[in-house]
Design brief:
Layout: E1 6-7, E2 18-19, E3 25-26, E4 37-44, E5 50-57, E6 63-69, E7 85-91, E8 97-103, E9 109-116, E10 122-128, E11 143-149, E12 155-161, E13 168-174, E14 180-185, H1 204-209, E15 215-220, E16 226-232, E17 238-245, E18 251-257, E19 272-278, E20 284-290, E21 296-303, E22 309-315, E23 330-336, E24 342-348, E25 354-361, E26 367-373, E27 387-393, E28 399-405, E29 411-418, E30 424-430, E31 445-451
Antiparallel strand pairs: 1-4, 2-3, 4-31, 5-6, 6-7, 7-8, 9-10, 10-11, 11-12, 13-14, 14-15, 15-16, 17-18, 18-19, 19-20, 21-22, 22-23, 23-24, 25-26, 26-27, 27-28, 29-30, 30-31
Length: 452
């Protein structure tokens, strides 16, 4: 593990009002906007590949990270085979390992999302090709795999959902009523048109024409038993990466779509941000495509204090709903109303490829966004192939803070947490062993960054 404390260093040009490559003004540093110190940057892993996709803070103040590992050595204990397994890591607030656990079977098991649960435990989702070990069942190539854990990381229950094709759970949330909702995608053609419980999707043409993915949402009770399932999409590739519960107990599923038919009625181009709003019983209320003529992918969503929503992702478009583009791809952030109407949209980035993966609301009313960048921007030089990236905006999309962390190889930021003491914790993966990342234990390591 590497620890260090260093002031965030801005170039002199950044210390005054200036503009980044997309024309958004960056103000002088504000002491309230996390412009303090890097508390630590640390890596975890073995001789193979590890990545972290979610991070939460437990009731005892410790940090709990969830990702995937295929190592059997180093920081990974209790694992025998070299297949991918879910990997849970608990650390102190200083980034020291408390314990780690692996979950899965003899085939590939990939974790995608972890949250705290109301009972003090955790629930994780992902997808599995196993039918042994911790995994009770597999219906085909890949199934949704949902695993409920207690506070010590022991399995309370686990469930699989799927058919004979590729079915991948990508995000799970707990509802206000205590149930669980999981979203992702599945292959409806491989399911024989199964997977929808409302009795309205009887047209076999949908299954016949379907491509390689469909938004698939499942509402489960506190024991993991299915309440209802719904799928939405068209005949091409449609994948849901995130979901938020609405004030009326429904849901907004977001992701990307390249379809132009069935549930997609307003396609803008190659791929669009695509949003589906559901009632609490799973009925579709509306769908909305956002984007331009090129590839636009939505990855994260959050609710705002004023009753609206912000969705983040990346765009390659220069037209349609996208007002500006600085490079090959920019992070694209869109604030929209409960009816799906755009309130504002802005791009962030430099001349390379930049993407936003996750967004959270902060206690001070701003929003922290993490992702990845291949650009140099705002006084920060690109360290190498790809860097971890964090930026903070206010409720109007004004850029408050921008920072790049990485080494000369591939570094990714996947998730962000505001800690109980108002610090920021960023999790992802790294292949670097230089510059900001001084230790690499294998091919790819889990990456944890704390900003105080």
């Amino acid at each position: 593990m590497r620890k260090f404390a260093a002031l965030f260093i801005f170039s002199l040009a950044i210390l005054g009002s200036c503009s980044n490559d997309d024309g958004i003004n960056l103000p002088a540093p504000n002491p309230e906007d996390f412009l303090g110190e890097i508390d630590f940057i640390t890596t975890f892993g073995g001789s193979q590949n590890e990545s972290i996709v979610s991070v939460v803070q437990a009731s005892d103040g410790s940090y709990v990270l969830m990702g995937t590992t295929d190592s059997t050595d180093g920081d990974i204990t209790g694992k025998n085979g070299d297949d991918d397994d879910f990997w849970l890591l608990k650390t102190t607030q200083e980034g020291e390992i408390v314990f780690n656990k692996v979950y899965g079977g003899s085939n590939t098991d990939t974790a995608t999302s972890l949250i705290n649960t109301a009972d003090g435990g955790f629930i994780v989702c992902g997808y599995s090709s196993s039918s042994d070990g911790d995994v009770s069942n597999n219906e085909g190539f890949q199934d949704y795999w949902i695993t409920k854990l207690d506070a010590q990381g022991e399995i309370s229950w686990e469930k699989t959902h799927g058919f004979s094709g590729s079915d991948q759970a990508l995000k799970i949330i707990q509802t206000a009523s205590g149930n669980f909702f999981v979203t992702g995608f599945f292959d409806v053609s491989a399911s024989g048109n199964q997977g929808n419980d409302d009795g309205k999707m009887a047209a076999p043409s949908k299954a016949t024409l379907h491509g390689v993915g469909e938004f698939w949402g499942i509402l489960m009770d506190q024991n993991g038993d299915t309440i209802w399932r719904r799928y939405f999409g068209g005949s091409s590739n449609d994948r849901s990466y995130d979901v938020v519960e609405t004030d009326d107990g429904g849901f907004i599923m977001i992701g990307g779509s390249e379809s132009t038919d069935f549930d997609i009625t307003d396609n803008k181009g190659s791929y669009d941000f695509w949003m589906v709003r559901l009632a609490s019983n799973g009925d579709k209320l509306w769908t909305k495509s956002l984007g331009g003529s090129e590839i636009d992918q939505g990855y994260g969503i959050t609710k705002t204090e004023d009753g609206n929503y912000i969705v983040v992702g990346d765009t390659r478009s220069t037209d349609g709903d996208v007002s500006a583009l600085s490079g090959n791809a920019d992070a694209w952030v869109v604030k929209f109303s409960p009816s799906g109407a755009i309130i504002w949209e802005k791009t962030y980035g430099g001349s390379g490829f930049d993407s936003a993966k996750s967004i959270i609301g902060l206690q001070n009313g701003n929003f922290a966004i993490v992702g990845n960048t291949r650009s140099s921007m705002d006084g920060f030089m690109n360290r190498g192939q790809n860097d971890a990236w964090i930026f903070i905006i206010d409720t109007n999309g004004n850029l408050k803070f921008n920072y790049i962390i990485g080494g000369s190889s591939l570094d990714f930021a996947n998730a962000i947490l505001e800690t109980q003491d108002n610090k920021l914790l960023i999790a992802g993966s790294t292949e670097s062993n230089d510059m900001d990342i001084l230790e690499n234990k294998g091919s790819q390591d889990a990456l944890l960054i704390k900003i105080k």
